[in-house]
């Protein structure tokens, strides 16, 4: 046996005798590497073994004695497999009895290290943040060592995981990554090797199919690569805007590039630089131009690789070339060594590639076909985890008992006949659903989804009265004080009127502005049960608020609340019935995916007599026509909203902004009118005050950002003017449009995009064609993806959807089918074949705390 291995064997034996206390060498076992690595190379040991030993011993000090024993055993087993002489010598080596151990060092059932996976030193990287010294590594040797089968993660109940523990390691284990580099990568959300595997490219440059500039045409969205041949900067007349102009040439033609109000680019883009630019081809004076394109430098050597090259998100001081090299190092080594968390039965049924192959191909694809298959597999995982999680939440919620509330037909008929209007069929169906829930013996867990003005408040009020008739309490939580006040007035009008069941004092409002003395009275009467309905903001979930018998909870505009806030309100009762409401029409495919734990009631019918809001699209040059309509509406004693996409102007954007435009409109356009300003940077009490003043007609015009999209009834407002309308999604525009048309007068919505050609935008045309929020929501999902609908729901997964498109109905149906089948077979994922899947599901949902609302 080589002398280096003989020394290693002796140290391992001594360490065993010392109870794996890391005392075989003064200062720790890792100290032998100072001399051992060079000796091992002189003995011509395989470089893989040298690297494996180095990685194992550098992480040794951070392990428990049991983990140390397993690590040395696994390492020695690998040595015996690679070096026949060591195996032969082992047969001749007597086994010495361990020396007596102290109480501090003795451990039970610690195995003799006959054979210490090669585990990354990453597995237990040093906690001081400093990278361990890297031994010189020949170019032919991998810098990361493979995880040896058998080295497993410990899981509860003695179950072990085949997921390498090294994937949890700090990035300082990578060659060339010290604490400073690791800190930069942290800004990209990269903290461990596992994070690297799931750091997907934001796009790809397919150098095998580059589009020549000469083939680009007007209106096309393209990415081209070429060399900068000219850069210049100038100011426009009046010095209100700076423009950086450049020309890029790829050998086939040139293309002019323009950036507005980004003067620093003159120092960033130099003649001779090779860059990639992405954007829409416009035309100016007969020449093709690209305005405000996305751009980034490219490595010249990649122009001739004839392959698909990943482009990753970057941060300050991190270059694409350096990060791509690091990603290649990690992905090509670790991806093929992963054990797939999806059981083979599911992969086969869904026709999906292996996880390792999918990760490898999504980062460094061999072809577009393999890239698409990889993306499909990783997207399936996300939707599958989402489906499985909400199924689990639904089961957990239904596993507890809920108070039974029987509602007699005669009682309900009396309540409906007392209303000053007839309910729509959609409202009646929602009430029937709620009535069924209340008598089921399980807590109601229902999403009431209805367009603006569809009458959700009436349904919620009737549901609350069903619970009140048995003496129980109801709480209604809304996101703003002004919306809470609106609900309070409506509930009082509907339930405490002449024919109402409750006295007005049984319904109270609790918000931040409620005087402290009144708050104390309300809290006392909630605690003794004399208040039956309380409407309020997050003030309802504050610690002093207790209920005598809270059995019904309504959360309005539920996407505006966090998981903890909804849970805090529910916790003030014993398994109360829950109704969550949203005015954002959610496409069915998305609702079934995101809200699969909720029963769904859809109110897609408007009450009779509701005004249809006439919607028109104007070009920026027709803005004066819009101002004329503003004047005419105010002359008729009505009020107007004017919406802007930004609070303040940005150097990076040409978009109009609310604060500057408010000042301009007041001085130059409407000097004789009263204009209010509302935006999201104001304090909540300031926003409420402005909105109340507008409602009370103290302002003729409210200049605002989208902060008004959810909120208050202003029946006197008849015109909604939206500037920069092409920057909003259809769901958002529909919400904004819903702020008007709440009175008897005809109302209008004018949409002005910020470019002439944007007036032809397909999305804006859809706004003029229909007032049906569900039709618009489906189009928005297809064109913009699910971002418009996610809100702030569920802490665990909103940001976890890196690959899935929730507009892919086929994928959603496939994942739901497999998730339901799995849930029917093994709802707790206890089967051994599902152990890795249970781990992956836990990582996806974070702490495992989802939310039923």
Instruction: Kindly report how far apart the N and C termini lie.
Output: 66 Å
Q: How many domains, as an integer?
A: 5
The main pleated sheet reads as: 7 strands, parallel
What would CATH call the class of the largest domain?
Alpha Beta
Percent range of helical residues: 25-40%
Please give a structural write-up.
The chain is of the alpha/beta class and 853 residues long. It has 27 helices and 23 strands. A seven-stranded parallel beta sheet has the order 13-14-12-15-16-11-17, with helices on both faces. The longest helix has 31 residues, at 368-398.
Keywords:
single chain; 853 residues; OB fold (Dihydrolipoamide Acetyltransferase, E2P); 5 domains; 7-stranded parallel β-sheet; 6-stranded parallel β-sheet; 23 strands; globular; disordered C terminus
Task: Record the SSE blueprint.
Blueprint lengths: L2 H15 L15 H10 L4 H12 L6 H18 L1 H9 L60 E2 L5 E2 L17 H8 L6 H5 L5 E4 L14 E15 L6 E8 L4 E7 L13 E11 L2 E5 L2 E4 L10 E4 L8 H15 L9 H7 L4 H9 L4 H31 L10 H9 L7 H14 L6 E6 L5 H13 L4 E5 L3 H15 L11 E4 L5 H12 L5 E4 L13 E7 L6 H8 L6 E6 L5 H7 L4 E5 L10 E4 L5 H13 L3 E5 L14 H12 L5 E4 L5 H12 L5 E4 L12 E7 L6 H8 L10 E5 L9 H8 L3 H12 L2 H4 L18 H17 L9 H10 L9
Parallel strand pairs: 6-8, 11-16, 11-17, 12-14, 12-15, 13-14, 15-16, 18-23, 19-21, 19-22, 20-21, 22-23
Antiparallel strand pairs: 1-2, 3-10, 4-5, 4-7, 5-6, 7-8, 7-9
